[in-house]
């Protein structure tokens, strides 16, 4: 049995090293890691991504698949739910770095299965909503950067792209501000600014080319 981390890296996401460090810091002993580079999770199904296809081939019954969050497993609600169900049917255990969620197909109790499936559906819907909100914030950031390209850029953001992505994800999952501060090494004030106006936080990164 192997523990495999799957991640996605693009121009706006965390680096593979950062995602691997996060997983290990959360207590996972990673045997292998698979990353798709420069592939959009919003428009591309997992099985259609180059390394996503390899992931399907690698995983066996009893293996543990680790992902930062369920949005890594599909482009929308139906895709995420379908992927999780397929892996569970294969006997693969799915675990998330954020909030330490676990999904497997071991339970046969109908009530437990109903609760599990409802939770999967909720998380998949949340992931899609987050992806759409992020895309809108990115467009706003680019527009803001273009509008201010010849003028004052404002204060340089005190957070990196990686820190912003982590804070945004954890805020979406209703993590405590103190927990996010520990994970990102950002001040509580900075996290509140990101929470109150994620579009402006994204715009600041775009304006400064971060």
Can you characterise this structure?
The chain has 210 residues and is of the alpha/beta class. It has 2 domains: 3-104, Resolvase, N-terminal catalytic domain (Rossmann fold); 128-207, no CATH class. Helices cover 52% and strands 11% of the residues. The protein has a 5-stranded mixed beta sheet, sandwiched between helices. The longest helix has 38 residues, at 110-147. The mean pLDDT is 82.
For the biggest β-sheet, the strand order reads 2-1-3-4-5
CATH topology of the largest domain: Rossmann fold
Category from helices, strands and their pairing: alpha/beta
Helix content: 40-55%
> Strand portion, in percent?
5-15%
CATH superfamily annotation of the largest domain: Resolvase, N-terminal catalytic domain
Q: What characteristic shape results from the CA principal axes?
A: globular
- Number of helical runs? 8
Number of discrete domains: 2
CATH architectural type of the largest domain: 3-Layer(aba) Sandwich
Rounded to the nearest angstrom, the distance between the terminal CA atoms is: 39 Å
What does the main sheet amount to? 5 strands, mixed
Overall mean pLDDT: 82
* CATH top level label of the largest domain: Alpha Beta
Task: Give the beta-strand count.
Answer: 5
Poorly predicted segments:
none
Based on CA atoms alone, the radius of gyration comes out at 18 Å
Order of secondary-structure elements: EHEHEHEEHHHHH
What is shown here, in short?
The protein is of the alpha/beta class and 210 residues long.
Topology:
Layout (H helix, E strand, L loop, with lengths): L2 E7 L6 H10 L6 E6 L12 H9 L5 E4 L9 H13 L3 E4 L5 E2 L6 H38 L13 H12 L4 H8 L3 H9 L1 H10 L3
Parallel strand pairs: 1-2, 1-3, 3-4
Antiparallel strand pairs: 4-5
